[in-house]
Each structure stands twice: as structure tokens, then as C-alpha cells.
Design goal:
The protein is mainly α and 326 residues long. Helix content is 64%, strand content 2%. The protein has 16 helices and 2 strands. It has a two-stranded antiparallel sheet. The longest helix is centred in the last third of the chain and has 23 residues.
């Protein structure tokens, strides 16, 4: 249910600049901002307005931008969403973009310390100066923010998953927290809504994993759990050689159906959400289902080609969402 990422099709960084605390900062990647706002910097005092401007600029100019920060969001929520996006963006980039896993671990631990300071009312970093009032206004607990960091830390040390429950635990901390934060921002956080949100978020992440099996292996990551591969008779050698065997196709069919069941299980959440946020969540759920259909369309042969959702399908999904919303 996350509104905080693009499909990665952007051709490259987009330069953006603002002034925060008298320093020029760019939204291309937060790694470029470490010299100003990293653990080795001496933070100058920053006004709330400047901190919020920093978060807005990051949301608008990062290469994985935040397109929903426009007409889909009610005006009174846009800054709060940008503040949350900036937090997620920093955590994600610290984990993915240093090119040095020990350095990433160090930076993520530092980011966790900054989160703790924020909850103690001692924020200094512009993201937390902006985020603090959002947390207080909507009573957002620390757990979902901390869970995201724990997932990014895990990314530095765990490249393969032994069991499906271990993979689901990772989804619980890497995907579901964003949905829960959104529920707080929309003042719709209940046990029932949380469960529906978790189903959609986990389903979306699993759909993305099964879409990108080949791409992930190229960077040394395997999200196909070892216990399922063993259960379906798909060996480690088959995996390393990227063999499309009947056993592999059966496994992918099982995984696609599992992700589809999760996405559909979260459908009741849509009607529980206010205004245009309902449209956003509906589109994300439909997008996940379309990704699964794309995998089916190529006969689950994800080693041979990457499943792609057609633009015409996205357009039809948007029309259906709009018709259902009006």
C-alpha cells in the first residue's frame, strides 16, 4: 500500500535544490546529503519551515520520486506524507546506495539513533525536525519506523531465505509498516484495518519479488525460500542455472496464487479509507494483481523474460477505480 516508490523506470537522477539551515541540499539521493546532514556533521539549527521544505524537495526530486504527493492527497496531508516519505527515503538509500555493507550498517544504526532522539523530543536532523510534529499530531508509534530500519539492516546480511515464514517476517517489517503509518495519517488505524493493510502490503511485495526473480539473482538476492524450493523439487543447481523446469513452474504458480489471495484479502480496506486515499489504495491493489496476471501471461517463465504490466492495462485499471469511486 506504499505510496512511496516508483516502478524504477525513471532514467536517472533529477537535480533539485533547496536551502535548509543555510546549506544547499539536493534530492538526487540522500547519500549526496551525508556531508551536510550525516553522522559526522555538526547540524546548524534548522527552522521547522526549512525542514519541511527539505522533505518536500526530496519527495519531488529524488530519482524514486513521490508522485502521489499531488492531487491524490488531501492538501492537509501532503506535508505529513512528504515527511514520512523523507524518513523512508533516507533509510532506504542508507541501506542500498553506499555500495559498502559495513558502512550501510553503521549509517542505519545512526539513523535508528536519530529516530530515538526524535521520540525523545531532541530532533536535530531536518527529516526528524519535520517528522516530529507529524508523529505527535497523528500519534504514530515508534514501531513501524523502527521496523523499516530493521528490515534495511537485514538486507545487509541476509541475501537468501531458508523458509517462507522468514520471508513473510521480512515483509512484515519492510512493507507493512508503511501501510500502518498511512492508516495513522488517515486516522483509520484499527486492528481490523491494520490486518487488511498488511495483507495488501505483503501481497504487493511478494508480487514484486516474483516479478523480479531474475533481476534479484543478478545482484545476489534470492527471495524464493529454500523450503519451498525443496518442497517442489527445485534444486540449488536448478536455481543457479536459472532452469525453467516443470517443478519451477508449479512453484511459481503456487507463489502467484498465494500473493493474489493476500491482495484480495485486503480489499475491504479500500472502503474504509477516506476520500481520495481510497483511490490510491485501490490503484495499488489493482497494480499488484496486474503484476501477477503478467507473470501468468508468460506462463510463469520469469527466468526467460521479466513480466511487464501493459500501459493499456494500467489505464483500464485506473478507469475501473475511478468508476468505482464516483
Amino acid at each position: 500500500m506504499s505510496s512511496f516508490s516508483s516502478d524504477g523506470s525513471d532514467p536517472g537522477p533529477k537535480a533539485g535544490d533547496c536551502r535548509a539551515g543555510g546549506k544547499s541540499v539536493t534530492g538526487r539521493s540522500v547519500i549526496t546529503d551525508l556531508s551536510h546532514w550525516g553522522p559526522d556533521s555538526s547540524y546548524p539549527p534548522i527552522l521547522q519551515a526549512d525542514a519541511e521544505q527539505y522533505c518536500r524537495t526530496l519527495a519531488q526530486t529524488h530519482y524514486e520520486n513521490f508522485p502521489v504527493a499531488s492531487w491524490l492527497l488531501p492538501r492537509h496531508l501532503r506535508q505529513h506524507f512528504c515527511n514520512v516519505y523523507a524518513y523512508c527515503r533516507w533509510a532506504d538509500d542508507l541501506g542500498d546506495e553506499t555500495g559498502d555493507r559495513p558502512r550501510s550498517l553503521q549509517l542505519l544504526r545512526w539513523w535508528e539513533q536519530q529516530l530515538n532522539r526524535c521520540y525523545l523530543g531532541e530532533a536535530e536532523h531536518p527529516v526528524f525536525v519535520a517528522l516530529g510534529p507529524t508523529i505527535r499530531r497523528y500519534s504514530i508509534p515508534r514501531e513501524p519506523f523502527a521496523d523499516l530500519i530493521s528490515a534495511f539492516i537485514q538486507d545487509q546480511t541476509v541475501l537468501r531465505y531458508e523458509t517462507f515464514p522468514q520471508l513473510l517476517d521480512y515483509c512484515q517489517r519492510s512493507a507493512n509498516p508503511v501501510g500502518r503509518i498511512v492508516l495513522h495519517l488517515c486516522e483509520r488505524s484499527t486492528a481490523e484495518n491494520d490486518a487488511w493493510s498488511d495483507a495488501i502490503c505483503t501481497g504487493l511485495q511478494l508480487a514484486n519479488f516474483w516479478q523480479d526473480v531474475d533481476r534479484d539473482l543478478n545482484i545476489g538476492r534470492v527471495y524464493l525460500p529454500a523450503d519451498l524450493r525443496s518442497q517442489f523439487g527445485y534444486s540449488d543447481m536448478d536455481l543457479e542455472c536459472r532452469r525453467t523446469t516443470p517443478e519451477f513452474l508449479d512453484m511459481m504458480h503456487f507463489l502467484v496464487e498465494d500473493a493474489r489471495t493476500r491482495l484480495r484479502a485486503g480489499h475491504p480496506l479500500i472502503k474504509k479509507m477516506p476520500g481520495r486515499i481510497r483511490l490510491d489504495i485501490d490503484l495499488f491493489q489493482r497494480g499488484g494483481l496486474l503484476t501477477l496476471q503478467a507473470i501468468e501471461r508468460i506462463g510463469y517463465r520469469v527466468w526467460d523474460q521479466r513480466p511487464v504490466v501493459r500501459k493499456s492495462e494500467l489505464l483500464r485499471a485506473a478507469i475501473k477505480t475511478l468508476l468505482g469511486w464516483t
